[in-house]
Amino acid sequence: MINRKSRLNILFIVLCGSLGMSAAMLLDTGSPLNTVIIAQAQGDEGENGTPPPVEPSSDNSYCVVCHSQPGRVMTLEDGSVLDLYVNPTTIADSVHSNLGCVDCHGKNTFPHSGPSPKSVRAYTVEAAQLCSGCHNELLADSAHLEKLAAGNLQAATCVDCHGAHDIPATENHPTLVAGVCSDCHEDTLVEWNESPHANMGSLGCAVCHLPHGQQLRIENTNALCLNCHKVPGEIYIHAKHLESEYEVSCVNCHMALDPDIEQVTTGIEPTDHRMVVQTLSCNQCHEELEESGVWAQLVDTNEEVIIERDALREQITQLEEQLSDQNASGGDVDYVQLIQGLIVGLGIGIVIILILVPRLSRNSNGNMIESGEQNNHHESE
After folding, report:
1. pTM
2. 336 and 238 in one domain?
3. Does the pLDDT at position 96 exceed 50?
4. What are the helix (H) ranges across the chain?
């Protein structure tokens, strides 16, 4: 029969064996910690009695021994804390899953040498340079990179937009790009959400803009818009402007912005992304409308049309009520038909007021404008 002392000895042996097996699994050949221990046991020492630095293998397991530990951080010079944890699953789901740590970070020796970054932001900017090894052509015309080169550390880096280790596949970008851009371009996203383009499937920032350079994908803005809006000439106002001798683009009318707005991006003219034609859009070219009083006349004409339209609608409503009463009481058929005829006539009157009157007014004012332009042309000669 096993006494109590024997049982304790057996438990102690089992415990020691378990600890030994765990240590053997953690300190596998090639791991950074095991390499240092072996170097110390063999008497290999570097400067100041420290073991010599070793280079990691291409196997990610070398690096994840340390970097897969949640909570592993580094305190930087400015007091900020840099998170050193990397989730191996995140890397496996990334577009870079076929690459090793050393492919991007280089053969960074262990223990790590060199000065620590001054701040988390400085490290992020520095880390973005790693991307240029493979993606240099994408950075060549980057508006963001220009800002970084000019010393603006708050400008967007590769990591700010794409992430570090969790970069999704390209086919997921249409649903992600607008959200990524809005991290910095908040006002533009607000305007965009008020536009007819919002929530139109995969239509996002990168459909019109190059994501890195921010330039338009097609330099001619009209050609860019006509990729989707293929028949603008069928609309009167479009045909009138597209056939004009002046260079009028879609942007001039649909994306006009106050010229006094502060411009923060060099070489890129700010625009309004709501795509709504406003009075400001017209005044940028038709200043003479305001100066000559024609614009005020156009506004007055519109107000008169609205007043007449509302009056006719009120009459139609009253006639419909009378017609309903006559039908309910079994009134005279001729009287009912008369009321119906009046309703039809008033409806036609509304159509005339809403369509023909503004068009006649527009033609009249157009002649006035053309006459003024001709006079200005003769005076300039």
Report:
1. 0.54
2. no
3. yes
4. 4-26, 32-41, 61-67, 88-92, 101-105, 120-128, 132-139, 143-149, 158-162, 173-181, 186-193, 205-208, 221-225, 236-242, 250-254, 279-283, 287-292, 294-329, 333-351, 357-380
